[in-house]
Input
Amino acid sequence: MSGDRYNITDQNACYFLTITVVDWIDVFIRPVYKQIVVESLNYCIEKKGLVVYSWCLMTNHLHLIAAAQPGFQLSYTIRDFKKFTARNILKAIEDEPESRRDWMLYRFEFAGKFMRRIEKYHFWQDGNHAVFMDPYRPQIL
Output
C-alpha cells in the first residue's frame, strides 16, 4: 500500500472519505456528540464550499462522499472539520454527564502522548482514507 494511495490529490474531485475516532472508540452513541458532527458538516457546506453527496455517521467513524466547490480545497475543509469537531466533542465529553468520561479522556490523551503536535488529546485518527470516485472506473462507485 503506497503512502499516497489514500490522499486527496485533486482538491475539487469527489472522494469517499472515512474519518475515524482513535482506537475506534464508540463516541457517537450519545446525541450530543452526533449533533456536533451534524452542525459542523452543515457549517462546512454553507461556509467552506463542502459538497456532500452522502454521509453516514457510525458509532466510531464517519463516512462521506464529498467534494469541494471551486475556490475551496477539500483537504483544508476536512482538516478544519476534524479540528473543530475534536475540540467541541472533547469539551462536551468533559462537560456532559458521561459514564465513560475518564476512560475516553485517558484513551484520547494516551493517543496523543507521543505526538509533538498534540497538546493534550488526540481525537480523530490521522488521515481520512480518501478514495477517489473516478467516474471512468464504475467499479469504484
Observations:
- The chain has one domain: 15-132.
- The chain has a mean pLDDT of 93.
- The longest strand covers residues 50-57.
